[in-house]
Specification:
Layout lengths: L2 E6 L13 E6 L6 H9 L7 E8 L6 E7 L18 H19 L4 E8 L10 H10 L3 E7 L11 H11 L6 E4 L5 H12 L3
Parallel strand pairs: 1-3, 2-5, 2-6, 4-5, 6-7
Antiparallel strand pairs: 3-4
């Protein structure tokens, strides 16, 4: 399994490492700019990247932290090899939840800061939903941060803020950890804001 080294800005302090694993969800409709922001945030090389990156401290190169990255949303592309017929929709859905739980368990490891994921606020029948992702992360002790893209980086691509916000709160996300992001801004600006608010990197 390949790893991507992502050099962190030199003023980053590992003394500010989060006390709990962090789950960052970048939420938006299809083609709204989620992967562009995640690439800028993590340094992952492509929009379908699903792996870990290594955040290095330039001042102290011997210190690093891993971060799991899902640059493509699990609502659009299933997690892991997807089950097919004759498996039922319920069995396939259970498999997706199990795969995400395994990913969270890895991201909660001692050498990890957490997980960053693109998320579409859809209501899939087989794939894992936004609500299930945040609910499971919270149940497993993650500090969750949600960043809703509105407007998106193209016309009519923004996620519906009131509906998504309400669903997040019902799932257990603290209102103070829900932020609205203007995806029309440069991705590096939004990435810096996400980094600052979540301490994921």
């Amino acid at each position: 399994m390949s790893k991507i080294k992502h050099p962190v800005e030199s003023d980053y302090s590992f003394q500010k490492q989060p006390l709990f694993p962090v789950f960052v969800g970048v939420i938006g409709e299809k083609n709204s700019g989620k992967s562009t922001i995640i690439k800028s945030l993590t340094g992952c090389p492509c929009s379908n990247f699903r792996n870990r990156i290594i955040a290095l401290n330039r001042a102290r190169p011997s210190i690093f932290r891993n971060i799991e990255v899902l640059c493509s949303s699990p609502q659009e592309i299933p997690l892991g090899p997807a089950l097919k017929a004759p498996f039922t929709a319920l069995q396939r859905h259970s498999q997706q939840i199990s795969n995400f739980r395994t990913l969270l368990q890895r991201a909660a490891g001692s050498s990890f800061n957490g997980l960053v994921s693109a998320i579409q606020p859809t209501n899939p029948r087989v794939r894992i939903s936004m609500d299930e992702m945040f609910g499971l992360a919270i149940a497993m002790g993650f500090q969750c941060h949600a960043f809703i893209l509105n407007p998106g980086n193209r016309k009519d691509s923004g996620a519906p803020i009131p509906e998504v916000r309400q669903r997040l709160i019902i799932s257990g996300v603290s209102p103070r950890h829900i932020s609205i992001v203007d995806a029309r801004k440069f991705a590096i600006i939004n990435a810096q804001m996400i980094r600052r608010r979540s301490s994921i990197i």
